[in-house]
Amino acid sequence: MEGIHSRTDFDLRNHQEYSRKKLQYHDPELNKSYVPYVIETSIGVDRTVMMLICEAYAEEDLSTAEKTDSRVVLKLPPAMAPVKLAILPLLKKDGLPEIGKEILNACKPYFKCFYEEKDAIGKRYRRMDAIGTPFCVTIDHQSKEDETVTIRYRDSMKQERIKIADIRETIERQISFNAGT
Q: How far is it, in rounded angstroms, from Cα 107 to Cα 70?
């Protein structure tokens, strides 16, 4: 991923010629002066990001005896994922979108969130997996009764119920650069 270029003395020799400033090095052991060679390295942000994406990209086989299934997932470290949380009401009615928008408004000042209502929940999970969103919360009818949501973890696909009031703290703890230590 890193470019390494042997520039020999080309750059310094030309700079010396046009600037009329001496750029020679004198080696006392050899009692000789010369224009040094330059080795130029480049890695840059673009190469670093490409390396991160290549390392994070995975295609997983989720097939069972009953059906064939797979998913594309971008397993970016949660701290580096552009979108940290997807908020997904199970239905577009019955007050579920309103709860979802309250969660969105409570979390968006602290980290990047995404809200979506369209399509089946499985399709929405797959879209979030493909763009690297590490956490999804699903709002269902039980959310109205006990103020809990289902949180789904991208890498393990594990799901658990948590209190709506605990969403922000749960996500912030996971997206911290110190989360693994």
A: 31
- CATH value at residue 128: 3.40.50.800
User: Among 38, 40, 41, which Cα is nearest to 25's?
Assistant: 38
Beta bridge partners of 73: 58
pLDDT in tens, 99-137: 999 999 999 999 999 999 999 999 999 999 999 999 999
Q: How many CA atoms lie within 13 A of 170 on its CB side?
A: 18
Tell me the pTM. Answer: 0.76
Report the number of distinct structural domains present in the chain: 2
Q: Which of 122, 124, 174 is nearest to 153 (CA)?
A: 174
pLDDT under 50: residue ranges of the chain: none
CA dist 164 → 11, 67, 84, 117, 161 (Å)? 61, 34, 16, 18, 9
- Check if the beta carbon of residue 85 is closer than 8 Å to that of residue 136: yes
Closest C-alpha among 70, 65, 73, 88 to residue 149 = 88
- Whole-number Å distance between alpha carbons of 52 and 22: 43
